[in-house]
Design a protein that fits this description.
With about 675 residues, this protein is mainly beta. The protein has a domain of about 170 residues. Helix content is about 5%, strand content about 40%. A hairpin with a 4-residue loop joins strand 24 and strand 25.
């Protein structure tokens, strides 16, 4: 066959052909991609499709798609599932007893000899669990290396209570885990001194370990006893597993332990010389209808303690697990489509698109049981070569559910230095941190982030009382032209503070938030740390745990315009401003917030509390400072607010204020 006649390449598990006909498929995905690379090298630019027969394709290294490979589709041959896995399947289990518990076991020689190691395990498509000590509750330290209240003053060791740290087997294989603020930290134990109680970490903590930090240990052999728990005894090479139920037997059980951190790498070529700036992108690649599974979830952050010195490994990133990679990683890539795929039982993020990526289409995918989050975008900052900027990507109709299973600070969708993106009609739920997070400069620092649309997303069930300082939609830094519209956000619960629906953090500016419904938030429906010229209008805010609207830091400029919103409380104040009562009063009298045409109602009182501050509690007191223009206190007449149906009845007084009904029937993924 002439090379210019090749349009389809066939591959199957165990195939031994040349891949040029369906009855003689090639058995190696890497070789299939090499055929396409050779075609492009020969100047053959015709569209090519790689058709995969159903089955499990196990990779020991990521598949690389690089420039000039393009104009390529990879998809199943028919409707049989195609799974691309980064794991080694483990079989051959036998009945055993470990730590007095009936279980299954298998000997892994590569573990015993140090040729292989893993920290994730899936058994029959379910993530197996590490042991936890204590099984419930937490341990408390006595002191730490760096006694400080400065956020970034991390510690390499702490003094534990001697009665807490038992004579555990393989103690240096145990992991110290703790949460504070908006991150979770995890580090193996480097050493332990029984005499002093000094517990030394392998990795320095990212933040200061304050006096109230609670911690626990994972992977403790002596706690091995519960269904679906696993333990890897590295010195002996023995893997132990407690079956989930009676249906699991040693003969039928299949475990998956990952070899690789990513499955696909799509990379263009950066031109890094004075004569030719820019890049040659990989372009026109589509991945369709595939399942990606079983990648490594081990990840170490890094930071510089002092400028000019090398970075040191840390037990977490500063926020959002921002440095972690994905199952699919892209740099200098344009016009790439990833659609109708399933990311299941994976280690870190699902898709990570970084420098020089644009016009990506991430459509109708499912992300579940991710060790970190779903989708991450991150390009060059305002100070970098423009060729590195990440922009104009479409993230639509995806389901990102039950993620953050190893790194709880991960986000459903995280876009950092990126502009012109459309993030619409996604469902994001059952995570421990923020749903959609974007921006990534602090304060009023120059940023490339702008003109992003976040709309018609269903964001729910975040936090679970584990982390703090999160939002259904969390924005950071100035990003003019960004619009947050028609999102349904509910049931966000923090540990200490900060379970927010809409959250504009440090320096957020030029953002419009309209037509959103936010309810059942442990803190506020809408919270602005500090910012400038942001607008919230025509939103419904209901049932907050503290108050419905808050601005935390006082600045002498117009921070926020709030107009045409419906505030529906059950005994909580309508809003609060700033950290202290005096600052709160200044914020009202200096008119750094503009309030107009809002409707307020409290189901517990005919006269709602506006601010929990003397002289500003009643609506008329607020109006006397000319901060409430044409607002009213009235029942908005929702159809069934107790069951979270905020449809307005025809005679609602909200309509007289110009309120426009919010239709939630089109929120979330659309049927295909």
């Amino acid at each position: 066959m002439n090379c210019n006649e090749i349009s389809t390449i066939y591959a199957s598990v165990g195939g031994k052909g040349d891949g040029l006909r369906s009855d003689r498929p090639i058995g190696d995905l890497k070789k299939a991609l090499l055929i396409v690379e050779e075609l492009r090298g020969a100047g053959q630019l015709q569209p090519v499709t790689i058709k995969l027969f159903g089955g499990e394709y196990f990779l020991s290294e990521p598949l690389l798609i690089k420039n000039p490979v393009g104009n390529l589709v990879i998809e199943p041959y028919d409707d049989k599932p195609v799974v691309i896995s980064g794991a080694r399947p483990i079989t051959g289990f036998q009945k055993a007893k470990f730590n007095g518990t009936d279980c299954f076991s298998v000997c892994l020689d590569d573990i015993k000899t140090g040729k292989w190691d893993f920290t994730d395990l899936w058994v029959d498509d379910t993530r197996a669990e590490l042991t936890r000590y204590p099984e419930t509750g937490y341990l408390h330290k006595l002191s730490v290396e760096v006694e400080s209240e400065v956020l970034h003053h991390g510690s390499k060791w702490m003094i534990a209570k001697k009665e807490d740290i038992k004579d555990f087997k393989n103690l240096t294989n145990c992991i110290v885990s703790f949460c504070h603020y908006w991150i979770d930290e995890h580090t193996p134990i480097e050493s332990y001194d029984k005499e002093t109680g000094k517990l030394t970490f392998k990795y320095t903590s990212r933040f200061e370990i304050h006096k109230d930090i609670e911690y626990y240990l994972e992977n403790v052999a002596e706690l091995f006893k519960k269904p679906n728990q696993w333990y890897l005894d590295r010195p002996s090479g023995m893997l132990y597993y407690v079956p989930r139920d009676k249906n699991q037997t040693p003969e039928t059980l299949v475990a998956y332990a990952p070899d690789v951190s990513s499955l696909f790498e799509l990379h263009g070529i950066e031109k890094d010389n004075r004569a030719a700036k820019g890049f040659s992108p990989v372009t026109g690649v589509s991945l369709r209808g595939l399942t990606f599974s079983h990648t490594r979830g081990d990840y170490v952050g890094s930071t510089k303690i002092h400028e000019g010195q090398p970075a040191i490994p840390t037990a977490s990133d500063g926020q959002g697990v921002a440095g972690a990679k994905g199952v699919i990683n892209l740099t200098y890539a344009e016009n790439i489509t990833i659609e109708n795929c399933r990311f299941a039982n994976y280690g870190l993020y699902g898709i990570c698109a970084e420098d020089g990526c644009s016009n990506l289409r991430i459509l109708n995918n499912e992300f579940t049981d991710g060790g970190a989050g779903g989708i991450k975008l991150n390009g060059g900052t305002a100070y970098f070569d423009p060729a590195r900027i990440n922009h104009h990507n479409l993230i639509s109709d995806n389901r990102i559910l039950h993620c953050g299973r190893r790194h709880m600070a991960a986000c459903g969708v995280l876009f950092m230095n990126s502009y012109g993106n459309t993030i619409v009609h996604n469902e994001i739920g059952d995570l421990y941190y923020s749903g959609v997070s974007g921006g990534w400069v602090w304060g009023y620092t120059p940023s490339v982030t702008r003109d992003n649309l976040i709309a018609y997303n269903h964001i729910h069930d975040l936090g679970h009382g584990i982390l703090s300082d999160m939002g259904g939609v969390y924005l950071l830094g100035a990003q003019p032209g960004t619009v947050v519209r028609n999102n349904l956000i509910h049931d966000i619960n923090d540990r200490e503070y900060g379970g927010w629906g809409l959250y504009t953090d440090e320096g957020s500016a030029g953002v419009l938030m309209e037509n959103n419904i936010c309810y059942n938030l442990s803190d506020n429906c809408c919270h602005q740390h500090y910012g400038a010229g942001n607008t919230i209008r025509n939103n419904i805010f209901a049932f907050a745990g503290r108050n419905l609207l808050r601005i935390s830091r006082f600045e002498r400029h117009l921070s926020l315009i709030a107009e045409g919103n419906l505030f529906y409380s059950a005994g909580k104040p309508m809003y609060s401003f700033c950290y202290t009562p005096n600052a709160e009063q200044n914020h009202i009298t200096d008119r750094t917030i503009c309030l107009r045409k809002n409707l307020y109602f409290d189901t517990k009182s005919a006269e709602p509390m506006m601010l929990d501050l003397p002289g500003f509690r009643k609506f008329d007191e607020i109006k006397s400072y000319e901060n409430e223009e044409d607002s009213v206190v009235a029942d908005p007449m929702f159809v069934n607010p107790e069951h979270f149906d905020f449809t307005l009845k025809p005679n609602s007084p909200a309509f007289a204020l110009g309120f426009k009904p919010i239709d939630v029937s089109n929120v979330g993924p659309r049927s295909v």
